[in-house]
Amino acid sequence: MPVPLIIMSAPNGARRQKSDHANIPLTPRDMAECAVEIIDAGASILHLHVRDDQGGHSLDVARYKASIAAIRDAAGDNIIIQATTEAVGLYNRHEQMAMVKELKPQATSLALRELCPSDDEIGEFSAFIQWMTRENIFPQYILYDEDDYLRFEGYRKRGIFNNDHPFTLFVLGNYQGTAPEKDVQQLKRRTEQAVFPWAVCGFGINEVDALNHALNKNGHIRVGFENNIWRNEKQHLTNNAEVIQLCHDAAVKSGRMAATVDDVKELFSL
Description:
The structure is a single chain. The chain has a single domain (about 5-265), classed as TIM Barrel. About 45% of the residues lie in helices and about 15% in strands. With about 270 residues, the protein is an alpha/beta fold. It contains 10 helices and 10 strands. The strands form 2 sheets. The protein has an 8-stranded parallel beta barrel, surrounded by 4 helices. Strands 3-4 form a two-stranded antiparallel ribbon. The relative contact order is 0.17. The chain has helices spanning about 30-40, 60-75, 95-105, 110-115, 120-135, 145-160, 180-195, 205-215, 240-255, 260-265, and strands at about 5-10, 45-50, 50, 55-60, 80-85, 105-110, 140-145, 165-170, 200, 220-225.
């Protein structure tokens, strides 16, 4: 039986503003309304960013708590909320880990190159992972290129992640659209070799290619206004729920169902 497709929603990210798309959710109220819509469309994980008063990226714990509370009030426990630790050039790894330790989110995303930029930090990073394991925090590790993958796989084999099959996200491309196609293809090949569960994300209308790869190779997908606001080269998507629905419908057509929250919890023993 095919593994259900986990459809992750990244509704806002760290950069885009209302001037980019009127329906990008930035406030706690926006996020609550978005959560209800994406759940109805088939999302099971919400990748959460919060913003400061000027709309800039923030890792402020109080802002996270406000958004999470608003989402839970509107949507209950019908979605897993994954708090980002993304630095965006504003935070160092100690600040990123401190946010997670104070917030204790249900789930979190961790860019390997940010939290453990070299082997010199592996002891501290390993201790942080052990702490997350004790706190039952569900991590997803973000890999941007071949170097990230090779280091990740080496750490996995050494048992650094306290899990032989950690959840990962392979980033196919970049915001600027300058990632060489050979690098994207290399990461795709790595997903086919992976012995752990993985998702992919794309940028712009290349989200469609990422979705097709996930469907065909038994992976999972992350989509949303963080990476793409376009339905095609000329038209904007209406909202985040539209692209979630597109993924849901493509999954059903391919013979895979969209994963529910319960499916995700069962897959990862949460």
